[in-house]
């Protein structure tokens, strides 16, 4: 068995000797040499030439938003409801963009009702309507400090008279700049 171990050791040593490298360590390895490429020369700047003015017009988003909301300031409600109708979502979205663009702006949200119902009930309903619009604005990123919900109940009708046409115009929230 000792002889088998010696024989295997000799075979392994011979195999390793046969796999040796033929590169001599005292000779330098071939290296590819290239000349560095210079970056392209920048054009000479003429300091006496006039600078071309930009033809891009500045955009005043505040003025644009203000113009867009100029005649869009009222949200109407159904009878005895404080739910903001889907048709007023674009109007509220536009006001939210305006308020988010300029954090110094603020709105007073004035809630109103028609003449039906008691004074206290209508004040509470007007407040809920104003707060519903305020919540819609804050959900669109408006800071709560930029909106103030107040109620006038039935005290400030937009239209005088009794009847559905007049009542429909009085059930509203007016969005007024502060």
Could you walk me through the main structural features you see in this protein, from its secondary elements to its overall organization?
With 178 residues, the chain is an alpha+beta fold. It has a domain at 61-177: 2-Layer Sandwich (60s Ribosomal Protein L30, Chain: A). Helices cover 38% and strands 12% of the residues. The chain is built from 5 helices and 4 strands. It has helices at 2-18, 61-69, 89-101, 119-139, 164-170; strands spanning 74-76, 107-112, 147-153, 172-177. Strands 1-4-2-3 form a 4-stranded mixed beta sheet. Strand 2, helix 4 and strand 3 form a beta-alpha-beta unit. Helix 2 packs antiparallel against helix 3 (89-101). The radius of gyration is 41 Å and the shape is elongated. The chain starts with a helix and ends with a strand.
Brief write-up:
The protein is an alpha+beta fold and 178 residues long. It is built from 5 helices and 4 strands. It is elongated.
